[in-house]
Amino acid sequence: MTARGKDSIVLLIHCKDRKGIVARVSGFIHDFGGNILDSDHHTDEETNDFLMRMEFATEGFQIPPGDISAAFAPIAKVYEMHYDVSPSNRRTRVGMLVSKQDHCLADLLQRHRRDELHIDIPIIISNHDTCASWAELFKIPFAVYPVTKETKPQQEKQVLALLKEHQVELVVMARYMQILSADFLGQVACPVINIHHSFLPAFIGANPYRQAYDRGVKIIGATAHYATQDLDEGPIIEQDVIRVGHRDTVEDLVRKGRDLEEVVLARAVRRHVERRILVYGRKTVVFD
Amino acid sequence: MTARGKDSIVLLIHCKDRKGIVARVSGFIHDFGGNILDSDHHTDEETNDFLMRMEFATEGFQIPPGDISAAFAPIAKVYEMHYDVSPSNRRTRVGMLVSKQDHCLADLLQRHRRDELHIDIPIIISNHDTCASWAELFKIPFAVYPVTKETKPQQEKQVLALLKEHQVELVVMARYMQILSADFLGQVACPVINIHHSFLPAFIGANPYRQAYDRGVKIIGATAHYATQDLDEGPIIEQDVIRVGHRDTVEDLVRKGRDLEEVVLARAVRRHVERRILVYGRKTVVFD
Amino acid sequence: MTARGKDSIVLLIHCKDRKGIVARVSGFIHDFGGNILDSDHHTDEETNDFLMRMEFATEGFQIPPGDISAAFAPIAKVYEMHYDVSPSNRRTRVGMLVSKQDHCLADLLQRHRRDELHIDIPIIISNHDTCASWAELFKIPFAVYPVTKETKPQQEKQVLALLKEHQVELVVMARYMQILSADFLGQVACPVINIHHSFLPAFIGANPYRQAYDRGVKIIGATAHYATQDLDEGPIIEQDVIRVGHRDTVEDLVRKGRDLEEVVLARAVRRHVERRILVYGRKTVVFD
Amino acid sequence: MTARGKDSIVLLIHCKDRKGIVARVSGFIHDFGGNILDSDHHTDEETNDFLMRMEFATEGFQIPPGDISAAFAPIAKVYEMHYDVSPSNRRTRVGMLVSKQDHCLADLLQRHRRDELHIDIPIIISNHDTCASWAELFKIPFAVYPVTKETKPQQEKQVLALLKEHQVELVVMARYMQILSADFLGQVACPVINIHHSFLPAFIGANPYRQAYDRGVKIIGATAHYATQDLDEGPIIEQDVIRVGHRDTVEDLVRKGRDLEEVVLARAVRRHVERRILVYGRKTVVFD
Q1: Which domains occur in chain D, in start order?
Q2: Reported ipTM
Q3: Chain D (227-266) residues lying within 8 Å, Cβ to Cβ, of chain B
Q4: pLDDT digit string (tens) for C200-225?
Q5: pTM for this structure?
């Protein structure tokens, strides 16, 4: 998808639409000797939001990567932009949260191992010890913090502390079967991606496969979204589906769903770390 | 899908599971010289429902088609079966209900014209006159009964009378934008298939495409189901989906959705008239 | 997908990649008061081709639509660009070629009728009179030129003359079951879109559904592509697929395929007339 | 999909169609006290092949599982049936062949670990040592037999001997990048499932992703099939596809393809070991 092989810089911009933004931004890049490798932008005509992703070659660009953000600040100020500048070869530090089920974790670890995703995984945290062997296999620190209704506030503090200690920039809930509190989400200070095992907004909450079975749907799905304080209501990043039939039991739905959950979560993480996603309102723009 | 070219009889059976049903039924067919062309059955292990579809050649069967149902009755009694016997070449009489949008109607009429569906369409009824030209083109009687909140009970009586007059065996709501009352559904005395323009149970009710747009889903769907007194809650027959992206406006969703609605409704009608569907509880078994 | 509601100009550019193209083009638009509504570009790193689509508001742009192409020429010269400037509200004149099967024609006509596609259809040409009723219904001139091996060169001349007379800008082969000669394609002077009833490059040539049935594939497809002198080898615009099973006969494949052919062809035509496609080598870039 | 929870017997039958087969077979099961849990049959009207899968409860059946095949033989003789009787809880012994790429192997091993597939894996054989760590992790014997053009006949003998030693009943080529010789396939005496990384019959042979990229297709696929002496021509078991776009490089196709290959191969293995597949001619019937 990206300009692999060449080092590049990704510039993400979000502001209200006004005339001349593309010209101004591409002019900035050109003026300092940059070559734009890929650009894509979208304007939401209902809300007048302007959202853009631009990727340009590091080679030949006269501003060192570390200084680009500061150099761009005056333009951002004019247009009141939110923006982010990241070298595309920078690896995102991902903290994994898991419970008993290991399939999403194992899948992400293998993608990581074959370097499919541009991430480092400094820590895996669980409320059970079931997944310890995966952590061991991939030589990643693994911490177990059991949780009960009573100990939840305290457990969340421990989790937060550990994520901070490992300088985590993205939290991935790989079938972590706990609801993160508003407090946790307020303090974590980095995005959290969750995989919900249904085609949201259908079957919010517990046991979505059972719900889907009882409703007699002909297709099931999985949804990756940013976690927000409203359960299963965060901005959707990616969804996918698979057909089911009357011969499929709830267990078959669970089995088919696992395959979905793995690929949907992996695509969401991939897009996030490649800086392909902008959130606005409760929606995402995903630049493919 | 079916034994085209040969005349055949379709036998649909629903009862509680007991030993020997398949042997008993296939024995009945064999004893009278029948050749089974296709058989499929499903047992729901949770509810112990036994559901079967058997299709056998008319040729060589020693009981005339019109007498088979009576001949089979003693077996049905032993197992307390609900059952249905239909020659597969019998055309189902379909009454169409439409409003202003014509795409599902036009699609079904064209399938009908190339004899893709084994149906006759004796009547099209609408609460608007928008679709009159289609009826004219295909030389099908077209009745307009406008409806308001006040006149609804009376209008439904007129619609019912007309459906009865035309001996309709299946009502298809081809984007009929009225909710049929419990009274209507209680009196219509034949199945009613509706197409809902969302991936149920997501986005029940009005303006599902707008709802989907606002929620920022990455996939939209359409759902064909039997109409019951609980709005959008009837047994699902068929669903299908298509990807949408941030560049798609609500109008784009509506446009993409039209293609879905057409094929999903057509598949549902096809399966119904080929006697491939059994309803049990709020679910369907669809024998492909 | 596009900036509906607002008048806009679409600029398509193809050249070899060099530094500064995006800046130069967006600068041009900005300098004359334009507001970019949508921009997307792609650089093929293997071939160094630069391909871009930019859409900007007509309102406020200081150059009248008819003069933009000339005004842009000097920039195009510097970068040796192929480029095209089109108002997005300009309707493309489409000439339809059909044979006996009417489903793709009927589908396009209905989309046209509800103004889903930004086209005019001045003429439908066929080698059979089967589709005459559709032409009549939609009040479009219909010409029948039967063709045999012997009369083919002459028939093609007649078809060419009629297309020219109607100032056709795009020819759509809506299941036209004749192979257009190299001569024809050389002289037609506008793009030709064909729908092939298989998932190309599988099942090139005649009877692809029969071929697919005999091979026992589990999925069938349809492919819309630009017609070139190499049969079924032209640049692919769009493809889609559907599952088939062992119960499906060749006739079932044909029936399922019809639904595919309709939507795949319609999507291809839509993207072409919205100026979303650039051809380079034997490939297309489709800006969604 | 199957009657999980209950022990059951699967009976697969293939013969030429004649009257009374279903009655005779279901009668046999009923006469000995069996309860049919699931039955499905298909008659190919072109070839007159009759293909059936019946699953009945072990509980209550008066013939011990080991004697059923012999007891059924007289009926099979009358109808000249090929048939197979297997307890559904019998685990199939699977020998894995791999080369350098580990994703299909790792995927199957994890499904095996969570007991998703009813298999034992007594041996993994490779022509490289790359996958040794997976074998070690899952504690499965791993044999490396490097192969060159010259040593191929000898290497195949070693592989064959090892498969025989481990009493392998199914060989799975999990991206084994060697073509098995006709000799090997003649002597292996059990089915061999291969995963081809294209949507067959498109892109037969080497580097299918490169071929797909160069052709500019909009969808790529993967195909699981039984290996026969004609390369990539064996009976297809399962296929699936995913969309690709102009931004996808060959490497992106390879990456997206991996996800397809894993699920397509896993589905094929699952259906094989659940005795859901019958091969006839160069086609399969897959009873879902």
Answers
A1: 8-87 (3.30.70.260), 92-286 (3.40.50.170)
A2: 0.93
A3: 243
A4: 999 988 899 999 999 999 999 999 99
A5: 0.95
